[in-house]
Amino acid sequence: MAEIRSIGVVGGGQMGSGIAQLAAVNGFEIWLHDADSTALSNAHESISSRIQSIVSKGHLTKEKGAEALRNLRCTSNLEDFRSVDIVIEAIVESEEVKKKLFVRLDNIVKGSAILASNTSSISITRLASATSRPDQVIGMHFMNPPPVMKLVEIIRGASTSDDTFNATKFLAERLGKKIICSQDFSGFIVNRILMPMINEAFHALYTGVATKEDIDAGMKFGTNHPMGPLELADHIGLDVCLSIMKVLHAGLGDSKYAPCPLLAQYVDAGRLGRKKGIGVYQYS
Ligand code: CAA
Ligand code: NAD
């Protein structure tokens, strides 16, 4: 099993920037790419300020913080990924867009490199089949926010090799995560269970069962969830939640997974959650 030292992360949004931060702090060389130059510079800024905040809280020495920042290279040129050992893709939750990226990456990275996707729900087998290396394609699903949440869900596609699985598992463990393994079915484990709950919370709001505040308080204080389901949807991104529900609905073929019309309407209105300043709630 080849050792992973250098990691390429594609997508500098919520998840990609968190994964890049986590890996840089744990001593890996990171290349971070985003197709949008503003998103890339925002990612660099937010990773730097988070690392400074970890140092100021005394959770990391000044030297380790400086080393983590040196480990991080942001690039607008995907060709810079030539020598990475693994790519972790964290772009928009669209099978078509991800497949196009996997085809490009397959032509850029060295033959031994692993192509991992942080997808929340999309078939790893289908992403893998767009490449010439399906045995080296895997799902590596971090939870939001990646530096804080303890879990990584690993998804084997139909052709994923034992070597690819073992190297990915070893990497996740070096990042300090607990691992769970899922077969390649829509939504895997976590979102198969979490997203129908979030969708049901939208139905409760849509049909006037209760206010958003009471729906959230019910689950937060009644079942000890750290966030209510509507607050959590804002944290994840309503666009991401809607995309996942569509994949569950199409992939599992049961009407119980149909996205709530209110969730779809919020996304149509650009109310994407915390990242846009407005979702179910308004953020200042
Ligand atoms: N990136 C990095 N660190 C972050 C962060 C972020 N975006 N947000 C918060 N943190 C850190 C804070 O700096 C703080 O660190 P210290 O303890 O070292 O000071 C710590 O997390 C706690 O933060 P706060 O005190 O500000 O807030 P909190 O105690 O309310 O915790 C939370 C915030 C960890 C997000 C917590 O509310 C929580 O666990 N919420 C549920 C999150 C969840 O369920 N995530 C999974 C979503 S599902 C998913 O990700 C899969 C998918 O495909 C959609
Ligand atoms: P986001 O919208 O915050 O960020 C996505 C980033 O990808 C944007 O900066 C965008 O510019 C960039 N991008 C889009 N297409 C690109 C391309 N072709 N090449 C390069 N960059 C491109 O999204 P996110 O919430 O970080 O989600 C990213 C992925 O992680 C999705 O697959 C999502 O399902 C998954 N995920 C999300 C969460 C969550 O809670 N948000 C949790 C786990 C997994």
Automatic annotation (TrEMBL):
Residues 7-184 form the 3-hydroxyacyl-CoA dehydrogenase NAD binding domain. SUPFAM superfamilies: 6-phosphogluconate dehydrogenase C-terminal domain-like (SSF48179), NAD(P)-binding Rossmann-fold domains (SSF51735). The keyword Phosphoprotein does not apply. Residues 187-283 form the 3-hydroxyacyl-CoA dehydrogenase C-terminal domain. It holds the Pfam family 3HCDH. PROSITE patterns: 3HCDH. Keywords: Oxidoreductase. It catalyses: a (3S)-3-hydroxyacyl-CoA = a (2E)-enoyl-CoA + H2O; a 4-saturated-(3S)-3-hydroxyacyl-CoA = a (3E)-enoyl-CoA + H2O. Transmembrane segments: none annotated. Signal peptide: none annotated. In the central section; belongs to the 3-hydroxyacyl-CoA dehydrogenase family. Belongs to the 3-hydroxyacyl-CoA dehydrogenase family. This is 3-hydroxybutyryl-CoA dehydrogenase. It comes from Rehmannia glutinosa (Chinese foxglove).
